[in-house]
Amino acid sequence: MSRHPVRHRVVVLALDGLLPFELGIPQRIFGRAADPERGPLYEVVTCSIRPPGPVRTDADFSILVENGPQALATADTVVIPASYELGPVFEEGVLTPELAAALALVRPGTRMVSICTGGYVLAAAGYLDGRPAATHWASAEHFQQVFPAVDVDPEVLFIDDGDVLTSAGVAAGIDLCLHIVRRDHGSAVANDVARRTVVPPHRPGGQSQFIQRPVPETRLATTAAARAWALGRLHEPIQLRDLAERESMSVRTFTRRFREEVGLSPGRWLTQQRVEHARHLLESTDLSVDAIARAAGFGTATSLRQHLQAALGVPPTVYRRTFRSGTAQKPRVRSGTAGRAPGGRSGFGHRP
To answer: Which of 62, 187, 196, 349 has the most CB atoms within 10 Å of its CB?
Structure first.
């Protein structure tokens, strides 16, 4: 039996000038989340701020939206994708009367989510005052100028501040929606959605938007085989030279190629994978914290506790209790924390 028998209602607000790709992310991610009996966990509805009808996109077509703003009053979560026609919201930081009237229908306590410049709408409505927020790096400086009361982080992929979540552009919206599924229903459900969508199951919010060469040149060797090898041996001590030898590279060359492909150092990436594996074991098994620490390659419960606290802000026992409870609030992931080793240490050298 599902822990969430009542489907959570996600209402996506389609504004003129929207980006079709980003509009489709919530339906694709939340719409694929299912319980063990393959029952849907979310209901996704799209609405506009006007009566049902066409909404312009930034492409050469419009879309027909069949729900008006009244749908916002039924939402458990509201998602606002990016738009290139925000007008006074973008230029002056104020809502249009039409948009203000629509957002006034949102019930208190509704979870609010933005993708890319959709965060301008949340900020103009006052949801981000005094809070941290993410947006596309190219808009971050302007965002901060228009909304000085918001703490804009131009580097991270997304920020989870509890009931308000914001992301950078395009693919970061996928990361944020997967994070929400993971927060609501655990890693197994989120990983299943990621497999069906053929995307990485987890990129932590604190990961930088700035990857200088995300797609390696085809003539260059890659580090994929070393990463796959490491993922099968997280319980073992792994050194940087071990990874480099798998690709027949020097440590220096391997480290450079790894950063070009992944956007992280090998040590930080390895720590993230170990934290993710520990999360999965805490959610899905009854293993002791000591056993999970060994299985994830952290060696001791103290080391696991330090890394989980640094990544998620909670110790292992609290994390497990949270995901075993149907009522407890899920841990918050703040910018610049997820996946970073305590004290800046790398993920290498953890021994059982």
So the answer is: 187
